[in-house]
Amino acid sequence: MASLKRAAIRAGLEGLYFSGLHHLMRPVCGGVGVILTLHRVRPRRRDPFQPNRPLEITPQYLEAALGQLRRWNFDIVSLGEMYERLTNRNFARRFACLTFDDAYVDDVEHAYPILKKHGAPFALFVPTSFPDRRGELWWLAIEAIIAGNDAIGLVMNGREQRLDCRSLRDKRELFEALHAWLRARESDDEIRRVVRDLAARYHVDLAQICERECMSWEQIAQLARDPLVTIGAHTVNNPILSKLPLPRVTNELKMGRAVIEGAIGVTPMHLSYPFGQRDAAGQREFRAARDLGYRTALTTRPGVLFPEHVHQLWALPRIPLNGDFQQLRYLRVMVSGAATAVRRGFRRIDAA
Q: Could you write out the DSSP letters of every residue in 15-47?
């Protein structure tokens, strides 16, 4: 299913690019700017089983993308500058913001030197349990569990089941199915209980994954001292907010900011919703972010920015730099706004 979806997306991007439609549509669909979503930047791995590869791009692709954005006459700006341009209606030039979710350690080692060399501002959104070494990166945990076993057993829908994953194809299909099943659980707590039980059963250390994969507070503080870097809030525990009761949503948004302020002396003014898709953050979460005084809050709903987004500052769309689509022609189509315009029926705002 995932491979079919990727193939369909790739075919759509190729069609828009090679037909020239993206170029024709840009004046109408391109908006005034774009916020790009990134997670991890690191060299390409050789492992055949990489189900979380969409979260990764290579340093070479990041550097090429920066160069192309400037050649396409984008100003690369901070989130603060983006906010000022939107609120002051300063649209003389299109702009691009670079945003990194989850504070992976790769981004200090591989992304930051490139961004520094190019003088490119960027935002880092920190879930505070990750540098506190209490974070549960459950998507990486289930990758490790499936990678290390020929079959796994777990209770699904009230029944103990044994799921084979001997072949590479079996592993990919199981990851896709298990990830979707977990995302469909009623509560975020249930997702975490299932993954903790699996991790204990198959000797995968959740704390070790967090320590290995995520930045420390010392690294985050070092980045925060650079004027190019904006530190943003990303909650405490990186939950799917829509699966929490409202008091816990409010606490996650409030404490995520407070812990960062206490740890490094920076008060985040910008928020990124964990996961950020339509089923993870909606009007309830948007109101909570607004009421807590965040200047902007970012989803992962795909789209470019239009002047009308000044009225939707707590539901801003982003364009992903996806590890499965590391071609500059795909980036050109995405920042043209053509792909998301077609997907949304040419509606500019998607904040339902």
A: HHHHTSHHHHHHHHHS-SEEEEEE-EE-PPP--
The per-residue pLDDT for 117 is: 96
**Per-residue pLDDT tens digits for 10-60:** 999 999 999 999 999 999 999 999 999 999 999 999 999 999 999 999 999
Contact by Cβ (8 Å): 226, 246: no
| CA distances for 258 relative to 30, 232, 236, angstroms | 36, 11, 10
Whole-angstrom CA distances from 307 to 45, 112, 179, 185 are 40, 30, 36, 37
Tell me the residue length of the chain.
352
Average pLDDT score, the chain: 95
pLDDT for 345: 79
Q: Which CATH number fits domain 2-135+214-343: 3.30.230.10, 3.20.20.370, 2.40.10.170, 3.40.50.10490?
A: 3.20.20.370
Q: What distance in Å separates the CA atoms of residue 145 and residue 204, rounded to the nearest whole number?
A: 7
Nearby residues of 298 by Cβ (< 8 Å), 6 or more positions away: 35, 37, 99, 125, 270, 271, 272, 273, 276, 316, 318
Task: Please give the Cα distance from 90 to 71 (Å, whole number).
Answer: 20
Residue ranges of domains in the chain = 2-135+214-343, 138-207
**204 token code pair:** 């995968």
| Residue keyed to tokens 């993954």 | 195
Contact criterion met (CB below 8 Å) for 204 and 148: yes
- pTM over 0.85, yes/no: yes
Question: What digits encode the pLDDT tens for the residues 222-238?
Answer: 999 999 999 999 999 99
